[in-house]
Amino acid sequence: MLTTALQTGEGFIKVIGEVGTGKTLLCRKLLNEMPEHFITAYIPNPYLNPDELRRAVAVELGVKQAQRMSVSLLTQRIQNRLLELHGQGHSVVLILDEAQALPETSLEALRLFTNLETETRKLLQVVLFAQPELDERLAQMQFRQLRQRITFSYKLRAMNAVEVTQYIQHRMQIAGYKGASLFSESICKKITKVSNGIPRLVNVLCHKMLMLSYGQGHYQITNKILNAAIMDTEGLVIKSNKQYITATVVFSIMALAIYYTWAIGL
Questions:
Q1: How many CA atoms lie within 13 A of 43 on its CB side?
Q2: For the domain bounded by 2-156, which CATH number is listed?
Q3: What is the pTM of this model?
Q4: What are the φ/ψ torsions at residue 68 (nearest 5 degrees)?
Q5: Residue 183 has what DSSP assignment?
Q6: What integer pLDDT is reported at residue 238 of this predicted model?
Q7: Among 5, 7, 14, 6, residue whose Cα is nearest residue 155
Q8: How far apart are CA 212 and CA 206, in angstroms?
Q9: Which end of the chain is more exposed for a tag (fewer CB within 10 A), N or C?
Q10: Do the Cβ atoms of 75 and 109 come closer than 8 Å?
Q11: Which helix (H) or strand (E) element contains residue 16?
């Protein structure tokens, strides 16, 4: 899908996803599967001011002595290099990971990069991989020009229970496992609930459950093993109806106490 968007000549492409939804993995897959006529400039570190961003792009494109020349000369050399690559039949793609961390001035410099074009095609295409905070920043009035240039946008979502089950089975098969399913449907549903369907958390939980199961000599993942994995994972909480009922009772008691205190005060 991303390669199709690039091949159609889209100027700005934006991929948004929460932490752990697979943005960096998708970014690497794009880099590895890029068609041969594409030249990529990959910027993994977004904490760059406009000057550092220009020089990083120039280095990626093979501009010589990019760290020494003035900004105006550097900009001209970048444009010349892009024209040279275009003349050779190449398309150039600038890929930025964690783009939500780009300084405001660098976002504007990024927009100006895409002004470089021929009569028929952009000389530089840009792909942004970012957390939802980027959308919040682009919603500001000062970034409306950049926002309007984003012609393709995709949001990575969390997995549902069916997708988590299929994902775990796929990962087990890739690892070489050919036996009966270790993760029951009910366990997969509980994994989905506690991880909110975030792939990274699903990976962490499954890894810990497999280690615990192996250590205890079990051939099936149990609720006890799942709960142990949850308790050992930072930021996760075992969710149960009992906890929900207890919390509801406590809240009701607090509400009644506040009401009677207020009534007595009257």
A1: 30
A2: 3.40.50.300
A3: 0.80
A4: -110, -25
A5: S
A6: 67
A7: 14
A8: 10
A9: C
A10: no
A11: strand 12-17
| Cα–Cα distance, 41 to 94 (Å, whole number) | 5
Rounded CA Rg of the chain: 25
173-205 residue pLDDT tens: 999 998 889 999 999 999 999 999 999 999 999
The span from the CA of 238 to the CA of 216, in Å, is 21
Name which of 100, 152, 86, 176 is nearest 131 in CA terms.
100
* Residue type for position 30: L
State the Cα–Cα distance between residues 78 and 124, nearest whole angstrom: 10
Average pLDDT over residues 136-154: 91
- How far apart (Å, rounded) are the C-alpha atoms in residues 150 and 101? 18
Please give the Cα distance from 7 to 250 (Å, whole number).
58
Q: Angle formed by the axes of helices 161-174 and 185-195, to 10°?
A: 110
CA angle 165, 169, 173 (to 5 degrees): 170
User: Model confidence at 98, in pLDDT bands (50, 70, 90)?
Assistant: very high
Mean pLDDT throughout 165-169? Answer: 96
Q: What mean pLDDT do residues 126-154 have?
A: 92
